[in-house]
Amino acid sequence: MRRAEGNAGVKLMECVSPARNKWRIRWDVQLRDDGSASYMEEEFTHKPSEEEVRQTIVSWFNARTEENILSGFEWNGMRVWLSAENQFNYKAAYDLALQTGGETLPITFKFGTDDVPCYHTFLTIEELADFYTKAIRHIQFALTAGWNDKDAFNLESYRI
Q1: Rounded to the nearest 5 degrees, what angle is found at the Cα of 153, between the Cα atoms of 152 and 158?
Q2: Most CB atoms closer than 10 Å: which of 36, 53, 87, 146?
Q3: Quick one: 99 and 152 in the same domain?
């Protein structure tokens, strides 16, 4: 699977080498002002079945959604890695701070990257709530965008 460049009228599915029975499917076609396009492409050594087409493209949407959740969130200028473990830790810290009326504060989290770490200490429930609410909102927006992409996928466009 790779991002390729071509013309705006690229076929979504075509046999590129009949002698070798080589087929390509394409999706996420992004048109440019100059009439060219960028798109994702996968090559097969046979004509892909409808299920193979669907599975390839839906898997790509899922991976893109997961990547957006993991590394697409920024809070107060700091990149926040939202792995499942980090999501659990943020929720636990938030819940415990609420349950104890802030007795578990201050709490410090590491944001940023391994190369450029950023540490932030939460002193108040309100600040922690702001962070946690925005993180959850980011996850929900990422999921919604992924669902919309998959809902817009039309297998009919790949039938030859």
Answers
A1: 145
A2: 53
A3: yes
pLDDT tens per residue, range 25-69: 999 999 999 989 999 999 999 999 999 999 999 999 999 999 999
Q: Is the dihedral of CA 88, 90, 94, 96 positive or negative?
A: positive
User: Both 90 and 36 in a single domain?
Assistant: no
Domain count within the chain: 2
State whether 26 and 43 are in the same domain: yes
Signed CA dihedral, 79, 83, 86, 92: sign only: positive
Distance CA 14, CA 124 (A): 58
Q: What are the beta bridge partners of residue 15?
A: 23
* Whole-prediction pTM: 0.87
Q: Which domain holds residue 23?
A: 1-48
- Among the three residues 11, 26, 48, which one is the final residue of a domain in this structure? 48
